[in-house]
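Input:
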Amino acid sequence: MILDHLPALQVVVPLLAAPLIVLLRSGRLGWLIATAVSWTGLVIAVLLFLRVQDAGTISYAMGSWAPPWGIEYRVDALSSYVLVLVSLLAAVVLPYARLSIAAEVPSDRHYLLYAMFALCLCGLLGITITGDAFNVFVFLEISSLSGYVLIALGRDRRALRSAFQYLIMGTIGATFYVIGVGLLYLMTGTLNLADMATRLGAVQEVRPVLAALAFITVGLSLKIALFPLHIWLPGAYAYAPSAVSAFMAGTVTKVSVYVLLRFMFGIFGVRLVLPGLPLLEILTLLSAVAMVVASLVALLERDLKRLLAYSSVAQIGYITLGLGLGNVDGMTASVVHLFNHGVTKTALFMLVGGIVLRTGSCQLDALAGLARRMPVTCFGVVLAGLSLIGVPGTAGFITKWHLVLSALQAGQWWIVVVIAASSLLAAAYVWRFVEIAYLRAAPTGAASREEAPLQLLVPAWLLVAACIYFGFDTSFSLAGARDAAVMLLEGMR
Amino acid sequence: MNLVGHYSYWMTILLMVAGLYIVVARSNLIKKLIGLGIFQTSVYLLYIAPGKLIGGTAPIVSEQFAVYSNPLPHVLILTAIVVGVATLALGLALVVRIHEEYGSIEEDAILEIDQHTAAVQGQDGQPS
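Output:
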């Protein structure tokens, strides 16, 4: 039955689409294929999610080689949740991409861009679905290498510099990860994640395991852009083509967080292996600093895309903060924020893509009086901005509420203060946009009323609506996250 | 401590640290990529060396052989080499493009050019 092979199809379909797009050498066909593939991916991810809800974890033996010898694809509460997020964002961004890409990238490169997009999607889905530590590395590099190309296609020449910087940092991160996996393989003799977790309990020698934990944590933190390892992120997001920024901001860092969650809680089971090593405390502290410092930097940025990128660094702080607190509420907040922030930030970057298309700039100074020119776009930015701040009735609030609950449970009052401070700073940088777009007079001679085309507005507003919807109805986002959190924390006992 | 017996580990560590140092310390983009290559190569050694047993053969089940070397690390590293080659190729392609756009492959010079352009644009943006 084809339904039994859904886990393989999830990855294989975009993988096959990429060379097909290159062979056809047509931007239009390439876009059609990539869009069809992303929608197929979304259907598969939703089917997998529903099956996991019904029947529990799915284990798929790739090529019928039984795990732990063969490569196992493992779909459980957490990975099915992340699969839905990644494929949802791809399915929304691709219909948006055609016009935006047509305006920003020379037309002879379109088919290559869509091929890279399909590869990047394949890599991200592969990282999420696989249950094999080395396979994670391979998919990590597939998604990263195609990601560097996507960023380098930006029209500003700074895109090239940013892509190169990301390539260096990303490769160091991935190599650190593979060193860590090598050490674990030496100690346990297995690469299957589930098998590794059981065998690690019997390992007597602690030092190589600690070294592996250090390498994997630092390597993945580079990929996550955890403060202070975030310097590749602002340039990469700011100068990439808008559709690429939108897709990558929502997915790339999120998937790396997912791998970190898997290793820290699924394999090392932090508390068991590490008495006396304050890993979670360090993570909490760095997250808190990220939430405040990155928000401050965002407040000072003059470029709207860079502002959003720094805001991403701060929001990644929220995700790792919940992870550092280490109780069910904190973990739930982390996982649900993967989803909430993915949706919010992608919506914002898509709207900014519309602004760039119409005004040719995303310098804040150039956007004075924009609300009269593009009212629908600007209102969308404000609504998604409210979710970024975490105003009640938006998706962002759900995260903050659980983070505060978790901090109180852990008895860490100062974290509540940091969350409040970071929210205020977020309100301040969102207000900067409001002030410039709504309250400043438009420069004389500006175009009167010129809304972004519907092809850009509809997908972007779909996600803006999702920011609001998931602030009220949390039966998918929160319930799914809680299942995943409970599963992760059981791994620690 | 068995210094000679751990020869391969010492070499691994040396290559690893040297590669990483080159990446951080050099401003020339090509040299950075060379450093990155050395850094990645050290990992190949880390995987392959422990898989070899002295006197071990390929894992062919036969009564003549009793000790087998582990073949899996070789296969893994074959994949890692492919990844390394792809990274290097893409990195060099980017350097070519950077050289076309900036006329330089020194990181400091490129940063300076960017800051200069940003400053000029800032002055233009001010009066409006």
